[in-house]
Design brief:
By secondary structure, the protein is of the alpha/beta class. The chain is built from 19 helices and 17 strands. It is about 45% helix and about 15% strand.
Length: about 550
């Protein structure tokens, strides 16, 4: 048994996240964590709210509450939403906690001692109207690369180019909207990222199994030339800089946020006796570290965070595989937290059960290209896959067993050619499913789960127990026994994707839903539920939905 350290990108604490955030990191990470647990591996799945940076300050300012209070409240809101979505974090942390503060400062001191920190005077945006310096996201303007009119001072949301505030055309304050932005000199600290070019290239050369999307983004950063990055900001909220002369600064959010993954493990370790975070972050080759994130986060995780850890000289685990995702769009346009465009996670849970969203987002994951969420397409996919295929399989088989065999699993006679071929087909599908999970091919894994559901339905249609029972009760009993076991296999295969619904099915079969094993080979899987066990018929799992049901969006 090997161990898997899994992290998903830390969602900003500035408001409830939309479905795009769920699809691009949180959900895929959870599905993989569940698969690894299901196959007997030890897993540490970490995440948390990212609580520093200008977006958080701006959101708190807009809400009219102190930043600390705003973060605490929004962390609780997000944690509850992710719990209801079935995200199985081992710990859901906060980057504003003491553990992240201390660790960030320790890593900074090591970088400084090693000569990778440099003091520089830079021109920084200043607003006479606001009477303050304006850190990157406090400045908005026109992107010089694509012309987007509302680019931020750190990155253009439209073309994803990284920016500095002075790059923007027609800059204005994000606080007051004033255009009297001028640039004054301010002293800051830089991470000498350019010094890591060779080490990063050598390290990336050992990560040959990364998806093409991730490798291309990382190498593009290197090929375009690494720029030293300013890692301090003129803000009140954040991790204080432990260096003489910079007491009025805090660290740039992208410096301390990834360190929050390690800090989350420290908090997890402190929560129960016998846990040691070092076994995960400072251990040997038995730990595989996987990150799940959207493509705009790739540079920070594939370049700047590894450089930070390498430069510190501390024995921290570097990521083995980064699974990057493209964007999920909404009806042909971008989801947008700031513009309130799209379906947000709290609203989604009010409209439909979590598994409905989980399945569609996984089955249509934006892996090789951006994927568009269209309401009509969503409704059609959910009805076909969940109601017509999986839900129909469970209901038609278990309802027939309840009606004709009094809810008792009947004994199976000798399996015929149809069942023998079924076992062989199951072997193939289960092997494919496992391979797709292991290669992080989310859509292909969902396709294989769907194929298992269809295989089970096709078997019942061909074997037709409702016809066999008229003149061959032992044969009908064998078919129903096989069908019940097929329902079990279908639920086990689906559990990483739709855990709540799969658990309901397994409970109806007398299985322990808190111990969901990986399906055995086809022959064993078709005899796993013993004859004589009482089963029940679960309530309708997935009622048909209509576009009108989502009209509130």
């Amino acid at each position: 048994m090997s161990r898997f350290l899994i992290t998903s990108a830390l969602p900003y604490v500035n408001g409830v996240k939309h479905l795009g955030n769920l699809a691009g990191s949180l959900l895929p990470a959870d599905i993989h964590a569940r698969f690894r647990r299901q196959t007997g591996h030890e897993v540490l799945f970490l995440c948390g709210t990212d609580e520093h940076g200008t977006p958080v300050e701006l959101a708190a300012h807009a809400a009219g509450v102190p930043v600390a209070d705003y973060c605490a409240r929004q962390h609780a809101v997000q944690a509850d939403i992710y719990r209801r979505f079935g995200l199985s974090f081992d710990h859901f942390s906060r980057t504003s906690g003491i553990a992240n503060r201390q660790l960030t400062q320790d890593i900074f001191r090591q970088l400084d001692k090693a000569g990778f920190i440099e003091k520089r005077a830079i021109l920084q945006a200043y607003s006479p109207t606001d009477r303050r310096f304006l850190p990157d996201r406090y400045v908005v303007g026109t992107c010089p690369h694509c012309g987007h009119a509302n680019a931020r001072g750190d990155q253009c949301e439209s073309c994803t180019k990284l920016l500095d505030p002075e790059d923007l055309l027609s800059p204005r304050s994000a606080i007051s909207g004033t255009t009297d932005v001028e640039f004054r000199e301010s002293r800051h600290l830089f991470l000498k990222l350019s010094a890591f070019d060779g080490r990063l290239r050598d390290w990336l050369a050992t990560r040959r199994n990364w998806p093409p999307l991730v490798r291309s983004i990382a190498l593009k950063w290197l090929d375009e030339g690494l720029r030293d990055r300013c890692i301090t900001r003129d803000l009140d909220w954040g991790v204080p800089v432990p260096k003489d002369g910079f007491e009025d600064k805090v660290f740039y959010v992208w410096f301390d946020a990834p360190i929050g993954y390690i800090a989350a493990a420290i908090k997890w370790s402190e929560a129960a006796p016998g846990r040691d975070w070092r076994e995960w972050w400072q251990s040997g080759a038995d730990v595989t570290y996987l990150q799940f994130l959207a493509k705009d986060n790739v540079p920070f995780h594939a370049v700047s965070f590894p450089a930070t850890l390498l430069g510190s000289g501390l024995p921290f685990k570097l990521v083995d595989t980064i699974k990057g995702f493209n964007w999920l769009t909404f009806e042909g346009d971008k989801f947008s937290t700031s513009a309130g465009r799209g379906i947000f996670t709290d609203t989604a849970l009010e409209l439909l059960p979590a598994d409905t969203w989980r399945w569609w987002l996984a089955a249509n994951a934006p892996e090789t290209a951006d994927a568009d969420f269209i309401l009509a397409r969503f409704v059609d996919g959910v009805n076909k896959d969940l109601a017509d295929v999986f839900g129909n399989l469970v209901n038609r088989c278990l309802a027939f067993a309840a009606a004709r065999f009094d809810g008792i699993v009947p004994p199976a006679a000798r399996l015929g050619p149809l069942e023998q071929q079924l076992a062989l087909s199951l072997d193939t599908h289960l092997a494919n499913l496992r391979r797709h999970h292991e290669s992080l091919a989310l859509r292909k894994a969902a396709d294989e789960v769907r194929a298992i559901w269809r295989l089970a339905n096709a078997y019942l249609a061909e074997a037709a127990p409702w016809s066999a029972i008229k003149n061959d009760t032992p044969r009908a009993a064998t078919i129903v026994n096989t069908g019940i076991n097929l329902v079990r296999v279908a639920a086990l295969a689906a559990w990483p994707f739709i855990p709540s619904s799969a658990a309901k099915v397994l409970c109806s079969l007398g299985e322990a839903a808190d111990a969901v094993p990986w399906p055995q080979d086809g022959t064993q899987a078709l005899s796993a539920v013993p004859a004589g066990r009482r089963i029940t018929v679960p309530p309708l799992l997935f009622p048909k939905i209509a576009v009108a049901d989502l009209a509130t969006t």
